[in-house]
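S.,

Sequence below, as promised.
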Amino acid sequence: MTYIFRYISVSILLLMLTIGLHARERKDGEIRALDTIPTWQGGNIKFDIGNLAYELIASDAKRMSFEAALNFNLKRRFFPTLEIGYANAHHTVASGASYKGQGGFSRIGLDINCFKPEHQSVWLNLILIGARVGVGTQHYDMLDLSLHDEYFNDTRCSFTDRWRTDCWVEINASLQLTFGKHFTMGWGIRERILCTRGSKAPVTPWYIPGYGTRKNASFGFNYYIGYRF
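The prediction came back faster than expected:
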């Protein structure tokens, strides 16, 4: 846990330093190049194929996650972003207990471009650092669980037709490249911190849509292809 908070602190510090390096003091009456850039600069819709491939390979096709993202380019500096997706998973442990669930997720946040907004390369390439708040809701079953009771000894039970919502925060960094006139591609990494660790439910699901397996922290990788408008 100490490592996780250290990682977050360093990431936030780097983000602040990056913003500070590109910031310039404005004198009264001075017109900066940024002031000449219209606020609306279009947007980009992206589809993730990296996490889908990773989930399928790492789980031997027992997990799948589909994800799309939409961001808006404001003054070539700020990129409000919405990400939505669907995931399902099936997992069985050595004792015979199993989890099966499916559900949707969404994330909302803001990315900041590390290039100077007036630089020509911003039209073609982006280095983005940002943060997200994510929410995942799922319908799941936990079957054939082994429970120990001091009066009835070991028993087997199942929990079916359950619903649960989890939320988390994350820090992310990504690279976006433009090829052709409107098409984009790129990759991103993200570190997630789970907020809903406690639970009033008898059992908590093994997997969280949009987050991954239930851990206090989760690392993610995405590879996108997209269309810029």
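Helices lie at 2-22, 50-58.

Coffee later?
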